[in-house]
């Protein structure tokens, strides 16, 4: 019974995470059009660190001990986190949220699948089906991206899209593996999220210091930075970290590929896109592939649990 409760909680965290990220991508895209990404990264990292440091203040002694025990993983998480947020903010300044989500989130499960392949205890047949479904889903996402390409934006989509897909997808996969590792070592979600932004803060400060006038912003703009930090960084990462405590990283990365669909729907409602029959067909095919794949991975996870229980007995 407790196990079912954990899975239920993990599913709830991912559900809220997906909705939050769809909103977040649109928010970042809107904000980076008027404010330099480096300035946003600097201030949002400060707000995120301060917010979670206040939350974790009561367990300071315990947290220091945990940080010392896991300092290597935390250092790697800081470095990779800094790179991934630079990729996200600078890409969303150029790419539409729907295009970005398709490329970025479509690449993560493929990278995680490859990373887990050596240690996989699942049958070769299931691995082959998983690989095929992941490939089909990614091709469908690329088809959606192709619908957005024109003579005026094709070069930008190819350039930034390649960075998002190759670098972003690979680094995000490693981040999820490290986050899962820290989640299983009893580091609270709020602690992990707060610790991962110091690298981003230092790097963005070093880059922005050459033009210190960029640090001078209006109080109203600071309020926007705070909102961006909470909606785009603090809340989504907290939810993801909580979910990874009970859910498998690969399964989680597959579920969150629903974000591009929600992002597209959100942009459709706000008038950014006009309705397209082709996009609707692609979205339906993608959704069907996603349902089949999540069902398969859930079945694989259940088999693993039964096997683990048998070994214990």
Automatic annotation (TrEMBL):
Protein name: EamA domain-containing protein
Membrane-spanning residues: 12-28, 40-61, 73-92, 98-115, 127-145, 157-175, 187-209, 215-238, 250-269, 275-296
Taxonomy, superkingdom: Bacteria
Keywords noted in UniProt: Membrane, Transmembrane, Transmembrane helix
Organism this protein belongs to: Snuella sedimenti
